[in-house]
Design a protein that fits this description.
binds adenosine-5'-triphosphate, Beta-Lactamase, 21% strand, 13 helices, Rossmann fold, Helix Hairpins, alpha/beta, binds magnesium ion, rod-shaped
């Protein structure tokens, strides 16, 4: 395509009258154009062979090849060239005919230089607009092509990802499922039907619920990617992690879910638990023996004038006691993990159990100048089926925490009552230090302890609440807490009857 910048634009002027030819050339050169001239049609065609001309100004009446014929020959060579006809009044009709055949405009002779300038400028503008619109059209075509390539590229990348990925639409139907995903779930690619609901392939209710929540508009959320653990054929453990897909208008478009194989982690976890259980078990009896022997030494030497430093032995006895209770906690955890808390299940009246725990721990509360009271329900509570050791561990831990994390003179109240149909609830409320909301989840993690000025000097291992939660979960119950920093905390346990 010819260059349309003023300096670059090439114009061919063809006229047998030398004066006109040179006059036009002068005017156009002054306008900044590059001008070629020819006195005859053949000469003009020779110029066109070497130059890419954008505009041709032709005289209609020339000896030999006339302007009409030249116009046609030019169109045959390059129909993009804009042709302007110069004509005398006698040939105006022919000029009109030439325009019908595609000439752009005509200038009747004789003409003023300004007339020529106006017509050429207009032709130049038309050329510019045409090129601009062609450029835009090409750009659009390229953008569409880019989009298309991008789409197929993303698809190819997702297909090739070693990570299992599935994408659903808002209805939870599969839009894209990569081979790694099918492999993870042992799915056969040949049985896949496009557009099926993901639940058809992964019939796990928890997984389906997570995916449909993430996919549908209502529960659509971005940020925390919820996880779900699922088992395939009993021996393969997978961790699903999902996220809503949201467009620029914040509309939910569906969900993207990845799977990772956590079987080896699970095995390792199990090995670790077994190891901890074994070591704890092996440590317990020698430690208990040492503890008892220290107690005996203390008893035998108390009141006597002896060389034994009573204070040191007292400290050693306290430390062994701490270790024994840590080992007890670890063994409890192992038992919960191994699902061994349902060995000794029997019908239990929670009211009786609670009042005996409160009696037992009352001594510790009194020693700290605290009041520990039990408020039983007005009516007799239904019995629950549970392992009494598990219940003792749950409420013992909660009440011990209430005592530990309340200052001198605190008030601790244990309440039991009926919750909704089929459940009883037990509340342990204290007027202690309270727990800031940001710790409400972490305190149920193993070994997590809140460290602040209030708790710094209180000893513990951070295993109490994880044990409580493990036991409550295993009994299909629930535990919640409500706390006001500086005012107190209430833990509520609900258990099925
Ligand atoms: P242990 O394993 O001996 O029970 P611990 O009491 O530190 O150790 P958890 O019972 O799991 O461990 O409690 C975890 C943390 O939660 C505690 O360290 C404490 O910071 C906080 N906490 C628990 N109960 C209360 C409570 N009633 N009031 C204030 N903080 C509490
Ligand atoms: Mg505790």
């Amino acid at each position: 395509m010819a260059d349309t910048t003023e300096d670059g634009l090439k114009i061919l002027v063809v006229d047998d009258e030398r004066d006109i030819r040179e006059g036009v050339e002068r005017i156009l050169k002054r306008m900044g154009y590059q001008v070629f001239t020819a006195g005859r049609g053949e000469e003009a065609l020779a110029v066109l062979e070497n130059q890419s001309v954008a505009l041709a100004i032709l005289d209609l009446k020339m000896p030999g090849m006339d302007g009409m014929e030249l116009h046609q020959r030019i169109r045959a060579i390059d129909d993009q060239i804009i042709v302007i006809i110069i004509t005398g009044y006698a040939t105006i009709e022919t000029a009109i005919e030439a325009m019908k055949q595609g000439a752009y405009d005509f200038i009747p002779k004789p003409f003023e230089p300004e007339h020529l300038r106006i017509v050429v400028r207009r032709a130049h503008e038309k050329l510019r607009l045409k090129q601009e619109s062609e450029r835009l059209q090409m750009e659009r075509a390229r953008t569409l092509m880019d989009l298309d390539t991008e789409k197929s590229r993303i698809r190819t990348i997702v297909e090739a990802l070693p990570t299992a990925v599935v994408v659903t639409n808002t209805a939870g139907e599969v839009v894209l499922m990569n081979p790694a995903f099918m492999n993870s779930l042992d799915l056969d690619a040949s049985t896949m039907v496009p557009g099926q609901n993901l639940c058809v392939y992964v019939p796990d209710p928890g997984f389906c619920e997570m995916v449909s929540n993430l996919s549908s508009g209502e529960a659509c959320r971005i940020g925390d990617a919820p996880t779900y653990e699922l088992t395939v054929s009993g021996s393969k453990y997978l961790m699903a992690r999902g996220q809503s897909v949201i467009n620029e208008n914040n509309d939910c478009m569906g969900a993207v879910v990845t799977l990772s194989n956590i079987t080896s982690l699970k095995m390792l976890d199990q090995l670790k638990s077994e190891f901890v259980a074994k070591v704890s078990h092996e440590l317990r009896s020698p430690l208990s023996t040492i503890h008892e022997q220290l107690a005996m030494v203390l008893k035998e030497t108390s009141g006597h004038d002896s060389d034994v430093d009573q204070h040191l032995i007292e400290r050693a006895k306290e430390k062994t006691h701490g270790l024994i209770s840590l080992i007890g906690d670890l063994l409890d955890l192992s038992r919960i993990e191994a699902g061994g808390i349902s060995h000794n299940v029997q019908p239990i009246q929670v009211t009786d159990l609670l009042s005996s725990i409160v009696d037992f721990l009352g001594i510790r509360a009194t020693a700290k100048g605290q009041s520990l009271t039990f408020e039983p329900a007005d009516e007799a509570l239904p019995l629950i089926s549970a392992d009494p050791m598990a219940l003792e561990s749950i409420f013992g831990n909660l009440i011990a925490n209430a005592i530990n994390y309340s200052p001198q003179g605190g008030k601790i109240v244990v309440k039991a009552g009926k919750a909704d149909a089929g459940h009883i609830s037990v509340q342990v409320a204290d007027t202690g230090f309270g727990i800031a909301p940001k710790y409400h989840e972490q305190i149920f993690e193993r070994f997590y302890r809140v460290k602040d000025d209030n708790t710094r000097y209180i000893t513990g291992t951070g295993l109490g609440l994880p044990i409580v939660k493990g036991l409550v979960d295993a009994m299909n119950g629930a535990i919640t807490l409500d706390s006001d920093v500086g005012k107190g905390t209430t833990f509520t346990v609900t258990l099925p009857v």
